Structure formats: C-alpha cells, structure tokens
Amino acid sequence: MSTPLASSPKGGPGEVLRGGPGNGLQIQFTEVEKRYGMRLALRGVSLAIAAGECVALVGHNGSGKTTLLKIAAQLTQPSRGKIAFHAGENPISLEEVKSRVGMVGHHTLVYEELTAEENLIFFAKLFGLQNPAEKARQALQPVGLAGRATDLVRTFSRGMRQRLSIARALLASPGLLLLDEAGTGLDPEGQHWLGTTIKRLRDSGCTILMSTHGRNETQGAVTRAIRLDGGKITHDSGAGGNPNDVLVMAAVRDSGEEGAP
Amino acid sequence: MTLARAAGVILAKELRTEFRSRELLGTTVVFVLIVIVLFSFTFNPTSSESRRFGPGLLWLAFLFAGSLMLQSSFLREQTNDTLAALRLAPIDPFSILAGKMAANFLFLLLVEVILLPVFAVLYNVAIFPVLGQLLLVLALGTIGLAATGTVFSAVAAQARLRELLLPLLLLPVLAPVLIAATEATIGVLRDPSELSLVWLTFLSCFDVVFLTAAWMVGEYLLEE
Lengths: 261, 224
Known about the structure:
The complex is a heterodimer. Chain A has helices spanning 65-72, 94-98, 116-126, 132-140, 158-170, 188-203, 243-259; strands spanning 26-36, 39-49, 54-58, 80-87, 90-92, 101-104, 176-180, 207-211, 224-229, 232-236. Chain A is α/β, with parallel strands linked by helices. A six-stranded mixed β-sheet of chain A has the order 6-7-8-3-9-10, with helices on both faces. Chain A has a four-stranded antiparallel β-sheet with strand order 2-1-4-5. Chain A is globular, with a radius of gyration of 18 Å. Helices cover 82% and strands 0% of the residues of chain B. The two termini of chain B are 24 Å apart. Chain B is mainly alpha-helical. Chains A and B meet through helix 2 and helix 3 of A and helix 1 and helix 4 of B.
C-alpha cells in the first residue's frame, strides 16, 4: 500500500524535492532543427529560457514538444543549430549539464525487475551521489512510496510508477527539470502533489521545461507558455508575459479537436 | 564517476535483474543442451573422429546460445525506455556497453561451464585433466562473443526486424572467433594436449580490437 503524498511546506518531508538553491540552468536554443528521415520535427527553433523559469510547451501531438525536450536532455542531437547551457554567467559543458538535468519522459524510465528502492539506489550511484541508500529512502518519502520501497516495480500501478519516475528525476536535485507530460497516470491527488512540487522547485530556482496537454494542476506553476505547431514556435507568452492566454488558447484548440468528428 | 565504477554499477544491476528472473539463463541452458544432444545423435559419439568434430559443434552451440542470449541485452532496456535513463546519467556512454558486456560474458561463461560436463559425457572427452587450459580458451572466445554480441545487440535493438537482424549481423562477424576458438579447443583436447599460442593470440587480438572499436563508437551506438 502506498503512503500519502507529502504536501509539506518547505523544511518538511518534501524538502528533498528541490533543486539546489539558485542552481537553475539557462538554456539557449539557436536555430535548432531536427530531422527524422524526411520528416522535420523541429524547424529552426530559437529560444532562450532563463534560470528559474517554468515553461510550458503546448501543441498538438507531433508538434515537436518531445523532440525539443529530448534535445535539451541531450538524448538526441539537433540536425542543425545548437544548444548552450549557462549556470549564472558561466557557460557549462554539455557533459557537466548531464549531472544537473532530471527528466520525466513518456515512459517511466525505471526497471520493472528491481524494487522502487533498488531503482533509486541504482540511479543515485550512476549520478555519483553520496550515500545512495539514504538518498533513495529520502526520495521515496515525498512521492508516497516509502511503504512500497521493497516491492518490485512490476507490481506497481501506472500512477505509482509515474511517481517513482518523478522521484528518480529529482534524485540529484536538478538545476533543469524536463517533464514530458509528467502528470500522465496520476490521480487527482497525484496531479495536485505534482503541481505543488513543481511550484516549490520553481521557487527554489530550478528551471523547468515541460510539455503538457489541456488544463491541469501543473499549469498553475507555469511562468511562460510556448505553443509549437509543426515544429515551429507560433506563440510565446514571453518571460514576463501572461502564460494563461497561450494555455487557454491551447486548451480550447485541444478540446475543439477532441470534440470534432 | 569513473568508467570502471559506472560499468560496475550497471553490471551489478544486470546480474540482479537476471538472477531474479532467471529467464535468460534458464532458456539458454535448455536450448544449448538440446543442440548438443541433437548434434550427438548425428554422430557416433564414441569415435575419435566425432571427438575431433566435437569442439566445433560445441562452439557452434555456444554461438547460437550467444545470439539467443544477447538479443535481449538491449531489448530489455526498451520496456520502459530505461536506456534513455542510462543515457541521462553523467557517465561515459561506453560504461553502459562495458557493464552489459561484462554481464553477458559472465552469463555465457556460466552456460558454458554448466554444459561442459554434458559435452564431455556425450562426446567421450576427458576435460578435467585440461580444465585450466580449456577455461582459458573459453574465456578468450567468450570475451569476443560477448563484446561483439553486445555491440550488435545495441545496433539491432533500434531497428525493425530486430530479432532477425542480430544473428544476421553477428554470425558472420564471429566467424574468426569460431574458427580460432575451435582450433584452440581441438588442440587442448588432443592427446597429448597442446595449447596453441597462435590461436590464443588471435583470439586476444580480436578481443582487444573489438573492445577498442566499441569504446570509440559507443556514444554513437547508443544514440537514437
């Protein structure tokens, strides 16, 4: 049985789910293009994201959201253009960036034949964290899986796997958090917890870039919204703008499409 | 994190998941056992000629075992896209390959060690007096098999028709290993026993060349 999700204020059990104070990364995409065979997934995307911004990527399926996130995570290389990262004023190498990025993908990115605890210890070791067992234990507490720590992941529901995936992404206190429809499979309580967690991470200075569909709890934390269509940025609320216009427009379009015959 | 340490962490994970499910080892041992027994039916196992063919048949069986076992090495990482999780970690990409190569080497060696006594009985071959030399040949041949197979498993896992692709890629490339390991094993099992330095050197060179190539192209092999 999973334990309730921690919704504690700063300093409580949820404390582990934070980026390091002020450790947010800045990202600069310059004329980024990504081609899969004959298909162009991204068409000359240029975008600067400041440290501590929480950016929502909206758009239809196949609009390029996941590809942009994968390029930011260095899971795939752009066919043209470049991506650069800065911590404060200083550029940081792509190798160094990896230790400061957490990602929740379409898939859960966890091993079914390992327990929840073993999964997190494994990834904590790969990230070179001190005391991996303690880190894993701490990470399981706020996602409500402490009571299922020694159970195999294959016995978990989709929502529990997703929570474990989020715990994995936050394990190394990332400066850049990439969320690809991270709310998938979460129940309303889980969605609320995720929204609260994202807000807390944003407030602690972590940069967040997430793809999302429709209106959900996670959008309350958004400081900027960008709409992608056919691999191009068509709307950007800007760093100081109101993201709700773009989010509402996306929600209306999506609901219109869902209702269409 | 150093390459060796990251590879060690991945090796430990591979061993834990396999010994927990025992899917791969169980099926491979049964498969190779069937192959060796079927081969023994086609010859008179007590004749000296069949003992001469025995090492070749043994290595062919190991090769089939390798293509069966190595298939899932990277396919398993596709279940929840855990390969992406590995690639997100701040480690040398070769450490992912190295950890899996080491695990596959141990799995294959375990299968070989289990089947060696069966082979000895069916083909009327005395292996215990030459066990040390035999294990050396097995180890060198298996390194080549595991290294090559792991690399091609990474390539095949991203392709369509992946189940067919791995044997098609692997078996021709492993022909030199098959020849060298078979010749070395024939020498060891001959009376009097003779450990051929030429074939051992050949196997060692193959292993070094392939491991070096895997280290150089590891990053590109794992890319989407």
